[in-house]
Amino acid sequence: MYQVSIKNIFLLSLIFFSFISLAEEAFQAGKHYQVLAEPIATRDPKKIEVIEFFWFGCGHCYSLENQLNAWEKNITEDVDFWRSPITWNEMAKTHAKLFFAAELLDKPEIINSTFIAIHANQSMMTSPREIKPFFASFGISADEYEKLFNSFGMKNKIRRAETFGLKYDVRGVPAFIVNGKYKVSASRNLGTNKLLDVVDYLIKLEEKKL
Predict the structure, then answer these.
(1) Residue 4: helix, strand or coil by DSSP?
(2) Which residue from 173, 183, 171 is spatially nearest to 33, judged by alpha carbons?
(3) Helix H segments across the chain?
(4) Which domains does the chain have, with CATH numbers?
(5) pLDDT cut 90: percent of the chain above it
Protein backbone atom coordinates (compact mmCIF):
# COMPACT_ATOMS: atom_id res chain seq x y z
CA MET A 1 0.00 0.00 0.00
CA TYR A 2 2.82 2.37 0.85
CA GLN A 3 4.48 1.83 -2.54
CA VAL A 4 1.17 2.39 -4.35
CA SER A 5 0.61 5.66 -2.46
CA ILE A 6 4.06 6.96 -3.36
CA LYS A 7 3.46 6.04 -6.99
CA ASN A 8 0.09 7.79 -6.99
CA ILE A 9 1.60 10.92 -5.45
CA PHE A 10 4.32 10.92 -8.06
CA LEU A 11 1.80 10.59 -10.89
CA LEU A 12 -0.41 13.34 -9.47
CA SER A 13 2.59 15.64 -9.12
CA LEU A 14 3.65 14.92 -12.69
CA ILE A 15 0.15 15.72 -13.98
CA PHE A 16 -0.01 18.91 -11.90
CA PHE A 17 3.30 20.27 -13.16
CA SER A 18 2.41 19.26 -16.71
CA PHE A 19 -0.71 21.41 -16.50
CA ILE A 20 1.37 24.34 -15.23
CA SER A 21 3.85 23.88 -18.06
CA LEU A 22 1.06 23.74 -20.65
CA ALA A 23 -0.57 26.87 -19.19
CA GLU A 24 2.69 28.79 -19.42
CA GLU A 25 3.44 27.61 -22.94
CA ALA A 26 -0.06 28.74 -23.96
CA PHE A 27 1.02 32.39 -23.68
CA GLN A 28 2.49 33.37 -27.04
CA ALA A 29 4.13 36.53 -28.32
CA GLY A 30 1.94 38.25 -30.88
CA LYS A 31 -1.16 36.58 -29.49
CA HIS A 32 -1.26 37.18 -25.74
CA TYR A 33 1.40 39.88 -25.50
CA GLN A 34 3.51 42.06 -27.77
CA VAL A 35 7.28 42.29 -27.85
CA LEU A 36 8.26 45.95 -28.16
CA ALA A 37 10.32 46.76 -31.25
CA GLU A 38 13.00 48.37 -29.07
CA PRO A 39 13.45 47.78 -25.32
CA ILE A 40 12.89 50.91 -23.23
CA ALA A 41 15.05 51.67 -20.20
CA THR A 42 13.35 51.09 -16.84
CA ARG A 43 13.67 53.33 -13.80
CA ASP A 44 15.52 50.64 -11.78
CA PRO A 45 17.58 48.21 -13.89
CA LYS A 46 18.11 45.97 -10.85
CA LYS A 47 14.41 45.13 -10.75
CA ILE A 48 11.71 43.91 -13.11
CA GLU A 49 9.49 46.87 -13.87
CA VAL A 50 5.74 46.49 -14.35
CA ILE A 51 3.70 49.55 -15.36
CA GLU A 52 -0.08 49.58 -15.49
CA PHE A 53 -1.68 52.14 -17.80
CA PHE A 54 -5.28 52.80 -16.82
CA TRP A 55 -8.17 55.27 -16.78
CA PHE A 56 -10.65 55.77 -13.96
CA GLY A 57 -13.48 55.92 -16.51
CA CYS A 58 -12.61 52.51 -17.98
CA GLY A 59 -15.00 49.73 -16.98
CA HIS A 60 -12.40 47.03 -17.58
CA CYS A 61 -9.91 48.89 -15.35
CA TYR A 62 -12.57 49.06 -12.65
CA SER A 63 -13.31 45.33 -12.90
CA LEU A 64 -9.58 44.58 -12.66
CA GLU A 65 -8.94 46.78 -9.61
CA ASN A 66 -9.60 44.26 -6.83
CA GLN A 67 -7.60 41.57 -8.63
CA LEU A 68 -4.77 44.05 -9.17
CA ASN A 69 -4.72 45.10 -5.50
CA ALA A 70 -4.50 41.46 -4.40
CA TRP A 71 -1.77 40.80 -6.96
CA GLU A 72 0.26 43.81 -5.82
CA LYS A 73 0.29 42.58 -2.22
CA ASN A 74 1.97 39.35 -3.31
CA ILE A 75 4.63 40.56 -5.74
CA THR A 76 8.23 39.83 -4.83
CA GLU A 77 10.85 42.43 -3.92
CA ASP A 78 12.50 42.15 -7.34
CA VAL A 79 9.38 43.63 -9.02
CA ASP A 80 9.03 47.40 -9.34
CA PHE A 81 5.30 48.04 -9.90
CA TRP A 82 3.83 51.45 -10.59
CA ARG A 83 0.83 52.96 -12.36
CA SER A 84 0.40 55.64 -14.99
CA PRO A 85 -2.99 57.13 -15.90
CA ILE A 86 -3.68 57.89 -19.55
CA THR A 87 -4.15 61.54 -20.61
CA TRP A 88 -5.83 61.24 -24.01
CA ASN A 89 -8.35 64.05 -23.50
CA GLU A 90 -9.47 66.65 -20.95
CA MET A 91 -11.65 64.19 -19.03
CA ALA A 92 -8.78 61.71 -18.82
CA LYS A 93 -6.41 64.47 -17.67
CA THR A 94 -8.80 65.48 -14.89
CA HIS A 95 -9.06 61.84 -13.82
CA ALA A 96 -5.26 61.57 -13.96
CA LYS A 97 -5.07 64.50 -11.54
CA LEU A 98 -7.27 62.57 -9.11
CA PHE A 99 -4.79 59.70 -9.19
CA PHE A 100 -1.77 61.96 -8.74
CA ALA A 101 -3.55 63.80 -5.94
CA ALA A 102 -3.85 60.48 -4.12
CA GLU A 103 -0.09 60.01 -4.55
CA LEU A 104 0.85 63.54 -3.52
CA LEU A 105 -1.44 63.42 -0.48
CA ASP A 106 -0.32 59.89 0.40
CA LYS A 107 -3.95 58.79 0.48
CA PRO A 108 -4.17 55.62 -1.64
CA GLU A 109 -7.77 55.10 -0.51
CA ILE A 110 -8.74 57.92 -2.88
CA ILE A 111 -7.98 55.64 -5.85
CA ASN A 112 -10.54 52.96 -5.03
CA SER A 113 -13.07 55.60 -3.96
CA THR A 114 -12.69 57.35 -7.32
CA PHE A 115 -13.43 54.15 -9.20
CA ILE A 116 -16.52 53.62 -7.04
CA ALA A 117 -17.69 57.22 -7.46
CA ILE A 118 -17.55 56.92 -11.24
CA HIS A 119 -18.79 53.38 -11.82
CA ALA A 120 -21.05 52.65 -8.84
CA ASN A 121 -22.30 56.15 -8.02
CA GLN A 122 -22.48 57.39 -11.63
CA SER A 123 -20.47 60.57 -10.97
CA MET A 124 -18.34 61.80 -13.87
CA MET A 125 -15.76 63.34 -11.49
CA THR A 126 -14.77 66.04 -13.97
CA SER A 127 -16.01 69.27 -12.39
CA PRO A 128 -15.09 71.11 -9.17
CA ARG A 129 -18.75 70.72 -8.13
CA GLU A 130 -18.19 66.95 -7.96
CA ILE A 131 -14.54 66.87 -6.95
CA LYS A 132 -14.48 69.40 -4.09
CA PRO A 133 -16.98 67.55 -1.86
CA PHE A 134 -15.30 64.29 -2.79
CA PHE A 135 -11.96 65.58 -1.48
CA ALA A 136 -13.66 67.14 1.53
CA SER A 137 -14.68 63.61 2.57
CA PHE A 138 -10.95 62.89 2.91
CA GLY A 139 -10.31 66.03 4.96
CA ILE A 140 -9.01 68.11 2.02
CA SER A 141 -10.36 71.66 1.94
CA ALA A 142 -11.46 73.47 -1.23
CA ASP A 143 -8.37 75.72 -1.03
CA GLU A 144 -6.04 72.73 -0.68
CA TYR A 145 -7.76 71.08 -3.64
CA GLU A 146 -7.28 74.20 -5.82
CA LYS A 147 -3.62 74.57 -4.88
CA LEU A 148 -2.90 70.90 -5.47
CA PHE A 149 -4.63 70.66 -8.84
CA ASN A 150 -2.85 73.76 -10.14
CA SER A 151 0.55 73.10 -8.58
CA PHE A 152 3.82 72.73 -10.46
CA GLY A 153 4.15 69.19 -9.13
CA MET A 154 0.78 68.23 -10.60
CA LYS A 155 1.56 69.79 -13.99
CA ASN A 156 4.88 67.94 -14.06
CA LYS A 157 3.18 64.61 -13.31
CA ILE A 158 0.65 65.16 -16.12
CA ARG A 159 3.45 65.96 -18.57
CA ARG A 160 5.30 62.80 -17.55
CA ALA A 161 2.14 60.72 -17.94
CA GLU A 162 1.66 62.10 -21.45
CA THR A 163 5.27 61.24 -22.28
CA PHE A 164 4.94 57.67 -20.99
CA GLY A 165 1.72 57.10 -22.93
CA LEU A 166 3.39 58.19 -26.16
CA LYS A 167 6.64 56.35 -25.46
CA TYR A 168 4.88 53.03 -24.96
CA ASP A 169 2.28 53.70 -27.67
CA VAL A 170 -0.62 52.93 -25.34
CA ARG A 171 -3.86 52.88 -27.35
CA GLY A 172 -6.12 50.97 -24.99
CA VAL A 173 -6.45 50.30 -21.27
CA PRO A 174 -5.85 48.47 -19.07
CA ALA A 175 -2.41 47.75 -20.46
CA PHE A 176 0.78 46.56 -18.80
CA ILE A 177 4.40 47.08 -19.80
CA VAL A 178 6.76 44.45 -18.40
CA ASN A 179 10.41 45.43 -17.99
CA GLY A 180 10.35 47.80 -20.94
CA LYS A 181 10.10 44.85 -23.33
CA TYR A 182 6.56 43.51 -23.43
CA LYS A 183 3.07 44.98 -23.70
CA VAL A 184 0.07 43.09 -22.32
CA SER A 185 -3.47 44.25 -23.07
CA ALA A 186 -6.91 42.70 -23.44
CA SER A 187 -7.90 41.32 -26.84
CA ARG A 188 -10.14 38.63 -28.30
CA ASN A 189 -7.36 36.17 -27.36
CA LEU A 190 -6.94 37.47 -23.83
CA GLY A 191 -9.64 38.55 -21.39
CA THR A 192 -9.10 41.24 -18.75
CA ASN A 193 -9.18 38.62 -15.99
CA LYS A 194 -6.16 36.87 -17.55
CA LEU A 195 -3.92 39.92 -17.97
CA LEU A 196 -2.05 39.43 -14.71
CA ASP A 197 -1.46 35.75 -15.52
CA VAL A 198 0.47 36.85 -18.60
CA VAL A 199 2.26 39.55 -16.59
CA ASP A 200 3.34 36.91 -14.06
CA TYR A 201 4.53 34.67 -16.89
CA LEU A 202 6.66 37.48 -18.32
CA ILE A 203 8.04 38.35 -14.89
CA LYS A 204 9.25 34.75 -14.57
CA LEU A 205 10.92 35.01 -17.97
CA GLU A 206 12.77 38.13 -16.90
CA GLU A 207 13.71 36.72 -13.48
CA LYS A 208 15.72 34.05 -15.26
CA LYS A 209 17.84 36.81 -16.77
CA LEU A 210 18.63 38.66 -13.53
Answers:
(1) helix
(2) 183
(3) 2-25, 59-73, 90-104, 109-119, 128-136, 142-149, 152-167, 195-207
(4) 34-207 (3.40.30.10)
(5) 85
